Records
---
Amino acid sequence: MDNYIIEMLGITKMFPGIIANDNITLQLKKGEIHALLGENGAGKSTLMSVLFGLYQPEYGEIRKNGEVVNINNPNDANDLGIGMVHQHFKLVEIFTVLENIILGVEPNKAGFLQKSEARKKVVELSEKYGLSVDPDAYVEEITVGMQQRAEILKMLYRDNEILIFDEPTAVLTPQEIREILQIMKGFAKEGKSILFITHKLNEIMEVADRCTVLRKGKYIGTVDIEDTTKEELSKMMVGRDISFKVKKEKSKPKEIVLSVENLTVPSKIHKNNAVKNVSFNIKAGEIVCLAGIDGNGQTELVNALTGLEKASSGTIRLKERDITRDNIRKRSASGMSHIPEDRHKHGLVLEYKLEENLVLQRYWQKEFQKGGFIKFDNVRKYANRLIKEYDIRSGQGPVTIVRSMSGGNQQKAIIAREIDKEHELLIAVQPTRGLDVGAIEYVHNQLIKTRDAGKAVFLVSLELEEVLNVSDRILVIYEGEIVGELDPKETTPEELGLYMSGAKRNTGKEANDGK
Amino acid sequence: MENKNDLQIKKFKFKNITDNAGFSSFASAMMAIFFGLVFGFIVMLVASPPNAVAGMKYIILGGLGRLGDVFYFATPILMTGLAVGFAFKMGLFNIGASGQYTMGMFFALYVGFMWDMPDSIHWIVAILSGMVGGMLWGLIPGIFKAFLNVNEVITSIMFNYIGMYLVDMLIKGNGTMYKSTTTRTNYLPLESQIPSLGITGTNVNLGIIFAVLIGVIIYIILQKTTFGYELKATGFNKFASEYAGMKGKTNIILTMAIAGGFAGLGGAFAILAPSGISGSSMTYEPINMIASAGFDGIAVALLGSSHPIGIIFSAIFISYIKRGGTLTSLVGYKPEIIDVVIAVIIYFSAFAAIMNSGLSRIIKSRFKNKELSHIEEDEPETTVKSKDDNTKEEE
């Protein structure tokens, strides 16, 4: 008989009209790293919320060491030794690392904090597991990697033995990813049991012992990593074959479409400039990727290009025309398409119908309006064509309210709108964020198709795999400066990581070659 | 396979009904009205048990005998309702409808008294100048909002007071208009009055026809034009509208000016109406009080879910039970009872979203439970999505 520390047996969780978890079984052995794999909406977060006591399942039971337990709230979970590092960290920004770690279990004497005791324990733990943190640094001032280590220490401080990591590598550099995976292995060796939620197959193959796959709320199966392959896992997750290698011909760059000179953009958060004196250009028929760790000026750079923010100096030329002072509408009309970073905030009016969203950039054009009245017949026709051509799936076709569509199909709608619109330059910011492998494959193919149609593509991405696979040329941004220009065929993830973390930069001649 | 297709069709039909925005706002308005009346009845029972049934009867049926007056009193609150609802479509809370209404009254009065014009067009010019007055009073908060990002609630509340005191001052200082012996203005000359509809025994006039027409026109603007498309998009998601290159600032100013114009028209319709009820129109009494029509407009807009057609009906409804409410004094109740009922109705219609999502959820889960075993689930995705949205917003 296997020695299971946590068993979730036959868990069924229904929301009104929807079965989020349908008879799911998850068995975690002591001392193993168990991956939980599934697309968005497969029911992973619901299952974890059940384990955490946030939801009560309709059917099924949870056992710890073979005994049935009731988990009614997160405190119960904590008492059972279950801890979790959330995808979005739950830290108080204006507190120090130490204060965050002890938050909720503060050691005190008659109501007075006893920090020195706590500090000793935290320092011990961080040395033991190689989790370097500065206990007195304020969370808002430390890197994402250190914030994550603080979160991990939070679990260790509470003596948790079952550790849940929810997409821990999403925000890290390759070096940091390597570190965290090592740390996880270390925990497993110590006898702690780890649940690792992710959709990155490489990481599962690297560290996990077993993997449970969910699809559309249903349990698909649990496999030993030793006996499986990446392809098999992805097939279990998506239900069909997925090709990982992005197929594309060599790029044939032609004339310059976008040229940016000495662009400087002030930051809204701090006093320094977010983008510092940046120059680059993009040619027709190539995909140029801007790589970098989140928050190094990518958002501001894109906003300045698209007109959402004002640059303080520099020039932007689209097809040799100076557009630095043009407004958003004018830039869009002169051939700039933009797949925004946040599809819910900028890309869509969620309360609008699909057809209304598909003409969001074009409703004012002659084809769709006459004398201020929208030609709804044409809108419907146009929407139906895009839905068919770009395979946008929804409940009621053009009249579906966009909010009710799945993330992947919402993104498809934006992509269809931006690619179908007349354009010379496509700016795509993290176009695959939050999408599952099937949808990612689709997005990449669309980008390459756009390139092959002779358009210029500017891709901003945080995903190394995407950067290396899709782009024809890589620009690395670090603290608002472009610190390197690399050829994806000649570079490695490690080298790219060094540039992204500011440890390396190619200067002078090399960087100027691209101009 | 066929079985599944059947189900699919069934599902769509069902969704068409419950997901229809009009249906759900109508259902929730009905529920709000029902609860409001029940609550009113309870208050009446407590206040004076033996008369409660008779009183309730007056509230519900009393308006029937005075339909002309129902329309007469509905006209101004229909217009202020549109003023609030229209701005609300863009995400602006126009609490300044009272000030705009008062300015509309003043402009209409001024033209009615001071300008010499051919009789046939005098009242029309008076109405239009009322609109201009209201527009002016909406425009200014709009400009502040657009260029300086000053919250329109604050400026428009201030403009309620500024407008009211300004109008009182100007009227008291004008010898032709103001008669100090009666502490109110003279009655407007006949030629500047809106033509009556000629139904004897009532005060109903052309104003209601105009108001309903304006409601329908706004509906068309919102549904069919690029301006309406932009306006609603901005109201739903101002970031997306900016991303799409819509001119947010111009649209804010335009929306506030148009909304103000509606309230101004309401003021003009009210003051220019021929009326047998003394003091209710054709004259203005400067008593340093903010016009209640503006606040009634908020109630009307809420009950009508800010939908122009909904607002037409809710204005008529509120006017209707108000007429009935005044009759409750016949069985010993104070007329304020009807304000209590209206307040409760508005209170419940503010819960509209919760109530109708609850209602449709109950219906849906009933339906689903029956068919549970057959359903091919593609929906978990959407719920998990929306949950994600929530966490994002929290952060």
---
Amino acid sequence: MEIALTVIRNETKQLNKTDRFALRWAEFVLKNRLKTILFAIIVFVVLAAGLMQIQVSHNYRVFFSDKNPDLLTFEKFEETYTKNDNFLFVVKPKSGTIDQPFVAQATEEFTARAWTIPFAIRVDSITNFQHTYAIDDDLIVEDLIENASNLSQAEIAKRVDIALNEPLLAGNLVALDRGASGINVTLQYPGLSEGELPEAINSARALVAEFEQAYPDLRIALTGISALNAAFFEATINDAETLYGPMFLVLIVITWLVIRSFSGVVATVLVITFATMAAMGFAGWAGIIISPFSGSAPVVILTLAIVDSIHILITMVQRMRVGDDKIAAIKESIRVNFLAVSITSLTTIIGFLALNFSDAPPFNALGNIASVGIAAAWFYSLTFLPALLAILPFNVQTYSDKSRGPLQEAINKLAEFVIARARATLVFVGVLFIGLAFAIPTIDLNDQWVEYFDDRVEFRGDAKFAIKHLTGLYILEYSVPGGAPGAISEPKYLQDLDDFAIWLREYSKVRHVYSYTDVIKRLSKNMHADDPSFYKIPEERELAAQYLLLYELSLPYGLDLNDRIDIDKSSTRVSVTLDEITTGETRQFLKEVDAWWEARSPGNEVYGTGATYLFSFISERNIKDMIGGNIVAVVLISMIMMLALKSFSFGLLSIIPNVAPLIMTFGVWALLVGEVGMAAATVSATSLGIIVDNTVHILTKYQRAREELMLSIEDAIRYTFDTVGAAVVANALILAFGFSVLMFSSFKITGDMGTLTALAIIIALIVDLLLLPALLMLRAKPKTKGVQYVSTESTNSI
Amino acid sequence: MLALKARIQFNPYKYVIFAGVLVLASFAHSPASAEDLDQKGYDVAARNDRSDRGFNNSRVELEMVLKNASGAESRRVLEQSTLELPDESVGDKNLIVFFSPADIEGTALLSYAKILDPDDQWLYLPALKRVKRISSKNKSGPFVGSEFAFEDITGQELEKYEYTWLREEACGELTCDVVERRPLYRDSGYTRQIGWVDQTDYQTRKLEYYDRKGSLLKTQLFEDYKLYDDKYWRAQVWRMENHQTGKSTDLFFKEYKFDIDLSDKDFVTGVLSRQR
């Protein structure tokens, strides 16, 4: 008992430099409490005013930086052909086929009206398809279905037959089972304001609503790239509406459970609100664009911010329970926590700042916003919080029961277990680690953007509808150059292109191929009085060039070939519509296409691109970029650990419990889920910054026990578990809980990030409680010198 | 006190005169009726149209320079012959022969412009050695991949549109009448066009094209006007810029030849195969 008292006294009396600085800080804040509060509020107001400037992204391209080579290729492609933004309306009668006159009539009317959608530059459908046929030497070019209201079902059926024999339409704008047809609207946004997409999508939706009302037997789904972009925007808004509120309430409950003080809850809530709003306001001032992923920043900041406050409050309450008055308890709490709170904030900031290594701007955005939030939380927890606590009434019941609760007892038992079986624990965790690490390569990187959204986002349902009833949504674009102006009319070029199209059509996952050769073959037939034996590539360049000229002269406004053929007729575009396909399968497909062209025409400059292409490499690219970020984060964080612990070997040792959980997390994920999207790239750096916190708490306590209290290794471990064990567990649980709230995001990448981070925090907790003490035990010979430690359980019984 | 003084010095006469001036001015600038503006617009267009008429026939070689959004260029050279028909309710006859690129050399397009119906068009394909009649109601599609539609290049026939005079404004050193015209042809790709016609030579200086949703689609500039035979103004350069796609096409005309002994028999399908 005497020894225990000595220990506590020693702990309070050992004042080093940092402690003295922290004490002076606390005294200053408490003396100027009103000024501090005022200052903190001014800082908050200035930053939060930026909330008015917040911009939310309306484009999937926000996930690709302007230096991303894949995006640059895509932009070059778009400059050569046309912009790739579109709406695809899927029109399906609730029963029967599209042969029914009312369906044709609705499609014709819809096609005409679609031209009036803002920024529409082209509308394609079964009705305005330019049907060409020959009567002797006359080439007739006309809409495939015109004045549908005057046509009988049989007449329409004939035209649908024509459409199904037309490679450009069948399986693309006309369903092979005649169940649905599509109206594709190409859009060209001037890119002058963020309001362009909402304007277009609102108009498109109004059109759908109007036609569904006028034709109650029709179901019209809205997809396409512009609808995808709207979904990104709506997912951000949806998350803001559904995640932030509940998150906030839950944090209030947690704080109450831990602190049991009304004033404590009020002060904590203010701190986390200030920190979060200041960080989001910073995003507004800095012009950081919010997207579905970076939209999770408030949840992340709330979670991380609360931990600082809780640490300070816990210590304060503990001190008051052992009899300190409020002001003394606050001072003591600041003294004890100042360094730990500062270091943990710093390491977390480093982890989040490392996201700047990523190519994807939303990851950078989350990293920067969260860093500002964490810094703000640190600032408010050490200024505003103690100042406010000093003013608010704060009562704590002094301990009446002797029990430390079942949690603490379990933790103490765990300490004994690890001390007794250090080697076995090490082997156990080591084997687990190796096993999980080996599972990682089985993870499949998948970024199917339809799957990014859950059912709350309308786009997903419509996209699934389109895929089921009409055509695929994953489209790869190829530019096939002929090498010289006019080369696209060369028989060799056309033959290669046609063989390519044939090869593509045999590929199992391909649903549709749009190739210029289908146009030229049809024209060849038309030029020979529709003789089917001339449905082939023209044998001379001049023939093909002149057919093309003829065809171009006969096309109407907006339905030209300028989006398929480049300006000097040296290259054409092939669009490949893929079925539901994972990005892994897409990458395999891309490889096979490259191999096909390499075999056919070595040294060719054929290239693929498109949104599907971009997303196929987004995970790999970001993971590759983040490897550097992770290394920098690990190095910096380890250096900070060495400085903070003033020990090289402790710093080095800390790498193991800091890094091992990350690897194990991906191992667990590989075994349980098996598939991950681009979120994977971000998780290791951010989680590292977070899980380091508990290592810091454990190692500082252990070191204090060893060096200041002169305890033996075993006792130092007992002391560590006894003093910070519960805090470490609570800390991890709060953080894991906060991040798991992100699972309810309607955006899968955010959800995956939340789940993975929560998982990493829990695994890190286990590692900290098992592996770290075992490592400490085996680091030096046990039973070394030191005084005996008696748990505070007995201390309290004085 | 000052205000009071001002009241004392108030002279009602001044106000009566001012009001009178206002009334007179309002008569002078009285808001003309819609019909008047339409008539005025028509008159401006008619004066513009008639200022170039009476040449009987013409021939000109021109080069098209196409540019896409990334600045890549492509060229076509062709020759356009026009036979003017005196009746304004009938369109002109046009013959276009392509010289380059090489693979379409000798391809010849004959068209009889119609006012409110699809044009009659025939194309001779030298590689096929046949004349094909094109039956299509489309006039607004891009002409050989350029930003010009066929209807933008051939016959700006007066009766193809209805007109409204909008305003008068400076255009360069000249003063222009700004006239809106709306195509009467049902399948036109445009909802309206706005033209700037100068009041000195009655020539079009600028033309804006609006698409089906009423947005500005493209702008055409007419530059380097040259007076032929002291009678006919012809712009030597036409520039068309598509505002939506960022693509553009410039037409560079060489020397026009007028009244060169062309007649109806030079604008029949039989001559198409003999153009080169």
